[in-house]
Amino acid sequence: xxxxxxxxxxxxxxxxxxxxxxxxxxxxxxxxxxxxxxxxxxxxxxxxxxxxxxxxxxxxxxxxxxxxxxxxxxxxxxxxxxxxxxxxxxxxxxxxxxxxxxxxxxxxxxxxxxxxxxxxxxxxxxxxxxxxxxxxxxxxxxxxxxxxxxxxxxxxxxxxxxxxxxxxxxxxxxxxxxxxxxxxxxxxxxxxxxxxxxxxxxxxxxxxxxxxxxxxxxxxxxxxxxxxxxxxxxxxxxxxxxxxxxxxxxxxxxxxxxxxxxxxxxxxxxxxxxxxxxxxxxxxxxxxxxxxxxxxxxxxxxxxxxxxxxxxxxxxxxxxx
Length: 321
Fold this sequence. Notes:
Blueprint (H helix, E strand, L loop, with lengths): L2 H11 L4 E4 L4 E6 L3 H11 L8 E3 L6 H4 E2 L3 H10 L4 E7 L5 H4 L4 E5 L4 H10 L3 E2 L14 H8 L5 E2 L12 E4 L6 E4 L5 H8 L4 E2 L21 E4 L1 H13 L4 E5 L10 E5 L4 H16 L5 E5 L8 H13 L4
Parallel strand pairs: 1-8, 3-6, 5-9, 10-11, 12-15, 13-14, 13-15
Antiparallel strand pairs: 1-2, 2-7, 3-7, 4-5, 5-6, 9-10
Helix pairs in contact: 1-6
């Protein structure tokens, strides 16, 4: 075990906050069994107290410490996708602090698929409550520098594991009812889950537990953000130039115009590549004082569902700074 990991685990035991990389985004970690430590997460993020956190655990053998009445489907999904970007919503153990669950009778649990996160969790030998390491509602961080830039001294330590491999948050699946249902889409899709479950999961309804990242406005830059069809992107750019405005663009195509007022970032045309880069690009453009950011609208097919979910929430919350 490295000295860095030992120090991070010790800080968590002392009730401090430690940011660490996962395969999805960087998490702002606290000892999930310590309500005082968990309260520091909410304070650092400016997060509403009824918004639940996800508990990260070292392996499936820790599941019963946090959840009860665990169905066989949970173990099947864990075997198929853990470590990885899948969060399971289960009935909570009575010992789980209300601060973690938002006062609900359910808890979200996952085993992250990043070697540094797993090393930390094994050294800590417990659950780490860890939402994304950014201010509530803002664009999630996918590098250690993003965490430093946004949270600064509010975090006792930031473990640097490089850029996150997946780039958007985990799929959240509720297993507390008679049928499994997706409460937040991620890069593990309905078809992937259906192959393990034997039937496709449903989607959340009014009775669904509250989960992370499910508000209408989330993942948002402070700059006004628009999601436009490919044929409208260039029109929007020309309109901005006519008003002598600087504009940012994120699109799979190369920039067809030459003007220093355009900050154009070409992004991958496949869903996995797009997901990997989108948060980092939104953060970059958001810091440039642009009048507007335009993102080319991705396809509406099922494999783009998670990306479209994040972009729609980002548009709803943009321009608030």
